[in-house]
Design brief:
The chain is of the alpha+beta class. It is built from 4 helices and 10 strands; from the N terminus they run αβαββββββαββαβ.
């Protein structure tokens, strides 16, 4: 039994990409499905499919190197971190992408700024 499905899913993606696997399987939840959709829209993964209650994530490489170096979980069950739009604008100069959980669903930091939304920071991708 997994206590934190978000941390488990991100760790599976990160580990699979570290050993150059073409795909990996993560546990299904609505939140993880939204997270994988954001990763696909931002170009970090090739795609995904839903198979028997699990999500199969197809990883993406560019010139035989991963499309991202690291995925860092920011908000944890014991410590929630929230950013307002002004905080996101300050962090926009950083090279990575924040994934933000807002009242209207999951967004990348760029999309959250476009929609003028703040929220809980799920992870940071570099």
């Amino acid at each position: 039994m997994v206590n934190n499905i978000i941390a488990d899913g991100l760790a599976r993606i990160k580990n699979a990409q570290a050993v150059r696997n073409l795909d990996t399987i993560i546990l299904y939840s609505k939140f993880m499905l939204e997270l994988v959709i954001v990763l696909r829209n931002e170009g970090y993964i090739r795609g995904f499919s839903i198979e028997s209650g699990k999500i199969k994530v197809y990883l993406k490489y560019f010139n035989n190197s991963p499309t991202f170096k690291n995925i860092k979980l920011i908000s944890k069950p014991s410590r929630k971190v929230s950013y307002s739009v002004s905080n996101l604008l300050k962090k926009k100069s950083q090279t990575g992408t924040f994934i933000i959980s807002t009242s209207q669903g999951l967004f990348s930091s760029n999309d959250a700024i476009k929609h003028n939304l703040g929220g809980e920071v799920v992870c940071y991708i570099t």
